[in-house]
Amino acid sequence: MSQYEKKDPIGLYPAPPFPKQDQSLPGRASKMDPKPDHGETSYVGRERLTGFRGIVTGADSGIGRAAAIALSREGADLVLSYLPDEQEDAEEVRDLLEGEGRRAILKPGDLSDEAFCFELVAAAVEELGGLDTLVMVAGHQESHDDILEMTTEGIDNTFKTNIYSLFWLSQAAIPHLEPGSSIVTTGSIQGNTPSPDKLDYAVSKGAIGTFTAALAQQLAPKGIRVNSVAPGPIWTPLQPASGDPETVSHFGEGSPYGRPGQPAELGAAYVHLVSPESSYTSGTTITIAGATPNY
Ligand code: NAD
Ligand code: MG
């Protein structure tokens, strides 16, 4: 069933309770039960991004994998960023995209490292012959019930991965972006409606919304658009890798659909924001949360 066929969204995907499962960060898509749907068998491209050249961070799994599949099937050639531990997941994505005739170049590395962010962009420009699309999906999430348990190292890791990397990647990319290019960030409904155990993560996600709104204004005179996607609960390895098995088995239960979203339900939003059809869309956030409010 393609993304264009009419369907009832409620029963479309598995609902909790899910089997109890535990992973450590970074999680793996291949270890999840049920397996997430990234649009592998459903996303149909319509040549909306022919000739585009982009970077997708966090492209090995979850929402980033879904964004990479959707962008690639619309015609974009991509550099895929992920952590070295995620090599197997990343190779699965590369094999899929290359098997469909697009370029998909693997660049593992740590985005909490400034030098790597600049290297990643330089490598993409070199290998793709330029750059017009920067899609930042990577994110780090931990859970702590008590602020007194939190360490500077942990807070640094969250902020460097989720916020600093957006500054570094944008600084590296902007000199290469011509008018008509775009940047997409990935926030969260946690940015507006934080859970108490996601203190540093939620603060970082709130900052991503602010980053997007401010940078969009700064880059408007250059003809570069900047937008964000704010997901609600989505079935990805981030959840079993950062939450306890009991919570994960009920993940998404409280949302109005009674289930979490699947990564496949987000791919089209990234395409829409990158596509030139969105020429007057900048500084905005698309919430994808199955009717969960984001305010
Ligand atoms: P995921 O685990 O599949 O993706 C996160 C990715 O971030 C990893 O695959 C990894 O490649 C990357 N990453 C983490 N730390 C990194 C680092 N230091 N250097 C390089 N890459 C790093 O999970 P996901 O849920 O698809 O997460 C994608 C984005 O969506 C994140 O920004 C997350 O905050 C956001 N989000 C997820 C949910 C959800 O419920 N799953 C909800 C709201 C927002
Ligand atoms: Mg991953």
Fraction of residues in β-strands: 5-15%
The CATH topology annotation reads as Rossmann fold
**Any idea what the CATH superfamily is called?**
NAD(P)-binding Rossmann-like Domain
Structural class computed from helices and strand pairing: alpha/beta
CATH C-level category: Alpha Beta
Shape: globular
Bound molecules: nicotinamide-adenine-dinucleotide, magnesium ion
Summed up, the helix count is 8
CATH architecture type: 3-Layer(aba) Sandwich
Distance between the termini: 33 Å
Low-confidence stretches: none
Would you tell me the overall average pLDDT? 97
Protein name: NAD(P)-dependent oxidoreductase
Keywords: Oxidoreductase
Family: Belongs to the short-chain dehydrogenases/reductases (SDR) family.
Biased composition (Basic and acidic residues): 30-44
